[in-house]
């Protein structure tokens, strides 16, 4: 089936690290989260379209986290 919406926008893995008042790392972090304008556009398109009609280019390196791939697959594995 042809795609009706494809995003070539950014796909980013956001990593969060917290600093204290002096700028030193506190050791507190948050899990890696998906982000980027292209990602949010594709996820938003899923409100109106099935996953088979939505797409986004995601460039995965050898170190691409399996947990992130699982999260993407929850939106519809055929999108990515």
TrEMBL record:
Q: Looking at the record's lineage, which domain of life comes first?
A: Eukaryota
Q: Which PANTHER family match?
A: PROTEIN MAK32
Record the organism: Rhizoctonia solani
Can you say what this protein is called? Uncharacterized protein
């Amino acid at each position: 089936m042809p795609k009706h919406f494809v995003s070539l926008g950014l796909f980013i893995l956001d990593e969060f690290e917290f600093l204290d008042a002096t700028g030193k790392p506190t050791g507190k972090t948050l899990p890696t989260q998906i982000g980027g304008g292209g990602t949010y556009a594709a996820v938003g398109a899923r409100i109106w379209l099935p996953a088979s009609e939505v797409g986004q280019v995601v460039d995965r390196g050898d170190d691409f986290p399996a947990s992130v791939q699982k999260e993407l697959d929850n939106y519809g594995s055929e999108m990515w």
